[in-house]
Amino acid sequence: MTGGDGRHGRRHAHRAVGYIPGVSFLHRMDPRTKLLTVLAVSIAAFATTSPVRTAFLFAFVAGLAAAAGLVRPFSRALLLLLPLLVFIVAVDIFFPEETWGHVYLSAQIGPLSSVITSGGLLYAAAKGIRVLAIGGISFLFVMTTSYTDFVASLRISRLPPQIAFSLGYALKSMTALYDDLRNIMDAQRSRALEFDRGTLIKNRRKLMALGVPMTVSVLNRARYVTEAMQSRGFASASRPTCYRPPHPGRNDLLLLVVLMLSLSGIAMVPI
Amino acid sequence: MRADPAIEFRSVSFRHPASRSARPREVLAGIDCVIREGERVLLTGPSGSGKTTFLRCCNGLIPHARPGVFKGDVFVRGRNTRDCTIGDLATTVGMVFQNPDHQIFSNDVVSEIAFGPEQLGWPPSRIDRAVNGILEQFRLDRLCDRQTTELSWGERQRLAIASVVVLHPAILILDEPFSGLDAASAAGLLDLLDTLNRESGMTIILSEHRTEFVARWASRRISLVGGSIIEPPAPDALPRDRRPRRMAGPPRAGIVALENVTFRHPGRMAPAMDGVSLTIYPGEATVLAGPNGSGKSTLLRLLNGLLRPESGRIVVDGREIRESTVAEIARTVGLVCQHADYQLFGETIAEELAFAPANLGTPPGVITQRIGRVREDLGIGHLGLTASPLALSVGEKQRVSIASVLTMDTPVLALDEPTLGLDPVAKQKLAGLIDTLCSGEKAVVIATHDAEFSAAVADRVVRLERGRIVDDWVVQEERT
What we know:
The structure holds two protein chains of two kinds.
Chain A: H1 6-12, H2 25-28, H3 31-47, H4 51-67, H5 71-79, H6 82-94, E1 103-109, E2 112-117, H7 118-144, H8 147-156, H9 161-189, H10 200-231, H11 250-268
Antiparallel strand pairs in A: 1-2
Helix pairs in contact in A: 3-7, 3-11, 4-7, 4-11, 6-7, 8-9, 9-10
Chain B: E1 5-15, E2 26-36, E3 40-44, H1 51-58, H2 61-64, E4 69-76, E5 79-80, H3 86-89, E6 93-96, H4 109-119, H5 124-137, H6 153-165, E7 171-175, H7 183-200, E8 203-207, E9 220-225, E10 228-230, E11 256-263, E12 273-280, E13 285-289, H8 296-303, E14 311-316, E15 319-320, H9 326-329, E16 333-336, H10 349-359, H11 364-378, H12 394-406, E17 412-416, H13 424-439, E18 443-447, H14 451-457, E19 460-465, E20 468-474, H15 475-479
Parallel strand pairs in B: 3-8, 3-9, 6-7, 7-8, 13-18, 13-19, 16-17, 17-18
Antiparallel strand pairs in B: 1-2, 1-4, 4-5, 9-10, 11-12, 11-14, 14-15, 19-20
């Protein structure tokens, strides 16, 4: 298993989320294998409330990122989850679904009753790590799966072309959106707009200065791409060819074996 | 003997749905026209005259993909576009869109070219032959293992055309293919189109504002004004009668100075700006010239602090800008970025024009005065103040975008490819405005590939290549 961002990858590695071209074992894999891994990790994460098991699950995901040589972009992408992580953990600490063990605090705040217990803290930790595990494996999928390969894999799975290309376009848009956002922010900052200052009312206007051009850009791009595809005969043949379809190889088999062993091992970890 | 008709318009009219346009009107108004096989047609006309709509009628996008009221008939090699799908026409009419980024959707060059043949169900061996042939013909073979996002604008434009020509359409339609291309890339593209026309008899129809490249090559010109074809076709705009503004005088102080500036984009080895020293003077229009990727846009973004140098100093109005925010620098340097769509968001033109000076804390009365002046200078008064900027044509959006920075009234104005989508009349207005600004001792820096525009406005030309200044000359001194 070789890692490394590769010659092309370095140019894209500054993006928080998006496809990073490269030649790692994850890049070379059939997108369907990766999609299966994302599903398996997500189901496993939802199936347990043990912080130890979710921590092992996250370690498995982080191990994949390390083996693919994507530690830095992976870490940067996880930072994007920070606000969501803080929100989920805070809610689960103060208003836990599970309350057992030592009680640290019990209070009534208006109509809400808050109890902080050792069990609640462990549960909150498990939920937080779950977010990291599911978010992490999804980011890895986005970073290592090219739009073209993803669409080809969906097409050879007999998915209707409209659905295959729509799903693929959604994946591609993640990269395009980041680039658009950067260009829009540059254009507005050039007109003396400071994004990190001002009151809530003024910030609403700043959000509009980003949101409207983003929406226009997304809609325009989608419309033009659709027209360009139609102009080149999209789905005009009853059986379109799939040129250079992806084929599962030894790496795919190896990942599935490692995935199954890891999940089985994690399931056996005592709570 | 006259060649057979390739495309025939019979009393064609088109009107956008009322909700899509601030000023609902007929974009095409009763067009009758025959384009014959093998013709090289140059379609010209001011912004919003209906050129793009005309082209979209040729391959069935109108009436099949664009909402609106379509009247009349368009025949493509005898087939009525009403009776065919867009896919049916794909092998007969190839369409290249204005912005290659809106057309290219694959990650790699080969997949992009193979898309059309895949959709038509060609067997893989035939796709192999077609892809290899087109890679060679378009000199894209050295790029075949590259990601499409890593290609330069010129390379992406060539790929966009290659991925259409691979289907060997009898008619090729191109919407402003030369916009954003440097002179060498534009000449290469014209050679390619010429070869396709001569060797395979391909009918080529292209719309273009930068007519200096294609005017002599085209065998026929069609001019659209207000949705109608005018006869005889409108000639190119005459060069401006331009008097020298500045004579050699005592040395002056620069308003912006770059001192040995080096900058590298994240993750790239080669510097985008490599030890550049340059002083920008008040009262002077400085044009940054050079091929795609030479560092022109990077230099403009360094001027207003959007990018920060790795080494070296940038001094704006006597102050080093290392510690200044972009908003602070924007009081001195106003930058108009490429692509107006990234900037416009206001509900009305008035809101858009007031946005930047309001951010600088300019009093409302002064803003109103500036808006009035700028609208007049740029010729956008007819658009009104209450129309939505998002409903305007490409050229109109570009002018509103420029106007929205001009209202900041900064001592330095930086323009990144300001003529994209502008028709000759609008370009002349902009050139006149730059003259006026320079006469008022403002400094104007323009990054452009548009040689006609450059010749019309430049007091000084700075040529960049691979992030270095390779030439720097003052136009008027040379003339005298």
